[in-house]
Amino acid sequence: MSIVRVANLVSKCLVDGDFSNYFSKVPSAVEYPEPIVLVEGAFTRESRIESEERGVVPIDVYVVREVAADAEAVAIACEQWVRAYGWERHSECWPWRVVGVDTFAPAFDVRDSSGRYVWKFTVTVTVVRQVG
Prior knowledge:
A hairpin with a 2-residue loop joins strand 5 and strand 6 (about 95-105). The two termini are about 15 Å apart. The chain contains two helices and eight strands. By secondary structure, it is α+β, with helices and mostly antiparallel strands. Strands 1, 2, 3, 4, 5, 6, 7 and 8 form an eight-stranded mixed beta sheet that branches.
């Protein structure tokens, strides 16, 4: 059984909101000119009890577009969708149980080497996982 990455839960959320752009770690401007890129950070434990631990996993979401206004608008819409999403329906996904989601407001990040505009926001997912 493979471990589901928390970023996969966020990408499923975005697809449910009709943000079905290609999700990639390293987008190629040739293959995917306007992707949404999710980069999962490391799990950081905040507490542990006898059979489980609780912590956070940060997910950086990059929205890449040819037009600056489009990058901004899509990033804002994505962040609002993630924040308002009904996480209760998707809270159980082994080995993670999502118990909270917080987002940070999108901001311009960079203009990439191909001239595209990149806006970024971070999703902090609080999860619980069973431990032996």
